[in-house]
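Same chain as my last thread, 103 residues:
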Amino acid sequence: MNNNQRQQGDVLLKQVNSLPSKVKQIERKGNRFVLAEGEMTGHIHEVEAEQFIESDGKKFLVGQVSPLVHEEHDFLPPEPGIWQVGQVVEKDWLSGMVNPVRD
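reply #2:
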């Protein structure tokens, strides 16, 4: 298991060492931050964290982070730190195209 990455469905967290210089806070929805919404099911990947920020289209969870919550996936417990939030992609080796995985 890669200790610097966590995955829950189509959401991928990658631990990084530092943040970009210019960041913008992302607002909470209730007590949690929504990381992704399922296009097919409407289910959401959500988390409690100290901060959720954005910089140049990249999103980051900062500090203490609760396990990710989703109706169809197990909890994902990341350690405290800085986690870049991304989406799992799949590659079609015949066409060479890379597409985001849809939940």
